[in-house]
Amino acid sequence: FQVFKIEVLMSGRKHFVEKRYSEFHALHKKLKKFIRTPEMPSKHVRNWVPKVLEQRRQGLELYLQTVILENEELPKIFLDFLNVRHVPSLPKAESCGSFDETESEESSKLSHQPVLLFLRDPYVLPKAN
């Protein structure tokens, strides 16, 4: 099975989280109940074709970035997925709306940092011809 390593940068601190595609899919199913979610990359791929794997990786990266950019308030399940524990408190965080009563403590405000988007993976060297 394939594992994706997610780099999480928050308030100048960096950590890594490793998740399988099935964990992304489970997150997506939960998030759909609370927020409008972006498209999820296809569940069925021919596993070991490098180009397809790279497209899936890019799709999952775009998925996470889109959820963050389009939601001022992120559900706790999303923060837990990224292993984010300490969210800096912002003004009005106490009075922000929630999805429903059970979700009231399950969401937090985040300040958004710019996201760098690479057209190619910066950690992979180009092939020499």
TrEMBL record:
Key words of the record: Cytoplasmic vesicle, Lipid-binding, Membrane, Protein transport, Transport
GO terms for cellular component: cytoplasmic vesicle membrane
Compartment(s) where it occurs, according to its Swiss-Prot or TrEMBL record: Cytoplasmic vesicle membrane
GO process annotations (BP): protein transport
GO MF annotation: an example: phosphatidylinositol phosphate binding
Domain PX: 1-107
Name of the protein described by the UniProt record: SNX24 protein
